[in-house]
Structures are given as structure tokens and as C-alpha cells.
Design goal:
CATH topology: Glutaredoxin
Distance between the termini: 43 Å
CATH architecture: 3-Layer(aba) Sandwich
Number of domains: 1
Number of strands: 4
Number of helices: 3
Helix content: 25-40%
Order of helices and strands: EHHEEEH
Mean pLDDT: 82
Structural class: alpha+beta
Strand order of the largest sheet: 2-1-3-4
């Protein structure tokens, strides 16, 4: 029997909404294309039904962007074509860690009795 003690957390679990836009003729849009394919896949839709995932192909020459809204209401928007896949994963890991720590603080089962009021 094999146990998975530290399962990989998917950053989509911490998002309420994600929007990706890119121009297919520009270089360095591989990260945007892969993100669109992943967020629109059937597996992702089944696993995260609350996620509102949208994307658009730009008809003009503009940089690729991602706009996300976390479940706590915070929003972030940034250009993604300047990042490699590895750098993008590091950015997402930081967001994921911050959102997870905030969730753990809000839903801590071991709260002190004076905090439970």
C-alpha cells in the first residue's frame, strides 16, 4: 500500500476567478497556452466547479496577461510572457502558500478559547 503524505496542492483551489489573454502571433506565449489548456480541461472543471475560468485571443499585438481573484477577494494581474515556466511556478507557489496560510489562520481548529468569541 502506498501513502501520499504530502499531496500536491493545486493553486486553482485558492482561486475564485482566472482570466488569461494572449495574442497567438507573439513569441513567448507558451505559458499562457498551457495555462488555458489546463484551466479549461474537463478534469479541472470537475475538480474545481467553483472556479470561473475565462480566456481570450487578442486580435492586436499585446503582451499576455493573467488576472486572478482569490477566494478571499484579493485580485492580482500581471504579464506572463516575461516569465519561464519555472519562474511562473515560483510566483504561483508564493500565492498558493500565502492563501493557504491565511486559510489556516481563519479556520484553525486549535483556537484559544478567548479567540472563539
Amino acid at each position: 500500500m502506498k501513502y501520499n503524505l504530502f499531496p500536491r496542492l493545486d493553486f486553482f483551489a485558492y482561486l475564485k476567478r482566472i482570466h488569461v489573454s494572449y495574442h497567438p502571433g507573439r513569441p513567448k506565449t507558451e505559458v499562457a497556452r498551457r495555462l488555458i489548456m489546463r484551466m479549461t480541461s474537463e478534469g479541472t472543471k470537475k475538480k474545481f466547479p467553483q472556479l470561473q475560468a475565462t480566456w481570450e485571443l487578442l486580435g492586436y499585438d499585446a503582451p499576455s496577461t493573467v488576472q486572478v481573484e482569490f477566494v478571499n477577494g484579493r485580485e492580482k494581474r500581471f504579464l506572463i510572457e516575461h516569465y519561464s515556466r519555472y519562474e511562473m511556478q515560483n510566483i504561483v507557489d508564493e500565492w498558493q502558500y500565502g492563501a493557504h496560510m491565511e486559510h489556516m489562520r481563519e479556520n484553525n481548529l486549535e483556537k484559544a478559547e478567548d479567540d472563539a468569541d
